[in-house]
Amino acid sequence: MGRRSGGRDARRAARAGAVIEAAPFLTRQIPPRVMISDEGLEIIEHNADRILAEIGIEIHHEATIERFRNAGASVDGTRVRFDPGLVRSLIATAPSTFTQHARNPARSVQIGGSATVFAPAYGSPFVRDLDGGRRYASIADFENFVKLTYLQPQLHHSGGTVCEPVDLPVNKRHFDMVAAHLRLSDKPFMGSVTAGERAQDTVDMAKIVFADRIPDETFVMSLINASSPLTWDATMLDAAEVYAANNQACIFTPFILAGAMSPVTPAAVTAQILAESMVGMAAAQLVRPGAPVVLGAFVSTMDMQSGAPTFGTPEPALIMSAVGELARRLGVPMRTGGQLTASKTADAQAAYESAAVMGPTMAAGTNFVLHAAGWLEGGLTIGYEKFMLDADQLGAYAKAEQGFDLSENAQGMTAFHETDPGQHHLGSAHTLANFEAAFWKSEMADANSFEQWEAEGSKDAEARASEAWRNLLAGYEQPALPPDVDDELTEWIDRRKASFPDSNV
Known about the structure:
Structural class: alpha/beta
Mean pLDDT: 95
Oligomer: single chain
Number of domains: 2
Shape: globular
Distance between the termini: 61 Å
CATH architecture of the largest domain: Alpha-Beta Barrel
Strand content: 5-15%
CATH class of the largest domain: Alpha Beta
CATH topology of the largest domain: TIM Barrel
Low-confidence stretches: 1-7, 10-19
Number of helices: 18
């Protein structure tokens, strides 16, 4: 059989050299799938209130403790307890939806409501690619993933610590990371949370780019993790205080390995998530009423024999569905899910586990999906090939969320009238008018004949993805930043870096 032209390669080449045009976020047409009754949700809410009243939360941040004391909480050292309903009443000032503005206004995203925003993986100290294998991440890798995310239409958000650039001093690497997001992409981004002063640096850098629009508008969103179980530490609350004071958004996320950082049962895990998240969101409202917040949930089960995290199990799917409903009842946006896996490579395990997490993520009506592309090895690694394969699949989820098109054209009645029974529809006017956009088409999958696949090198999905990310980077063009703004940003960073010595803490 003769070799046909490579349409997939042509599409990739065209995309690599094209201006990225895509919807800035998904607007879901499919209602969330609810796997818990209203009575069940009320039980979870009641149990969260009991946790807050009877056990309380350890808070290692004096300013937050004092604000809660003044708001009516009971304080015993670092243990803070809340009467039922108190925390919920404090969260009432939080917006149900908000806009995170981007450097390019066309890429600003809605957080909350029927919107879903996809962001890449976060926090990995290692990277992996097919040729180089697994290694420590560098600032070059960080910049590569910012560029790749910018070039992927299905990723709406630049993310935050897409990987840890371990070749830079710990106390100064945030300057280069935030600068990369601001310079190499014009999508919205996430800020530094590893110290309060680093959060302030993020805000100050954003002010250079966005001038006097802060604090009136929100340009930065950041991940504030609880130290589960039932603890908020000073580092996270320092960062949250800075962002909330400047009207920048925080995702308050318990990081739970069920069975270690929580009880093992989904109902107990969900109550703990709600209790911990509500306290974080309430703390932000006490700093600045109306500061944008997101109820976050990151849940993994564990292998009870080895203690290793596991992904793709059914229990987190139940929890995600419940958390989605609880967030909507509370009137705040929700973050959860992603394409998570414990696999070390972009193999069949990675594909199955990622799909098993991402499906329930979408069904839960998640508003902000962190770790939507690139996650490997329980988050220790971000993979170049996994990133490309995941980003490709996000297109399928986006298409599915459009729901049924019931327009006159979509009903297709003209096609039935013009095509006799027993005859194919390939040449009908309706097919010819619709075929180019009729079906979602993967750019990573190979649907060709065996002979053509063999003639093209017998490449598996990982090999195709390896070629794709390299080709995509080769066609990258930096979105313009006004020269005076770029110069001011450079001068500010240089001055701040020179003001204190390097440190690895």
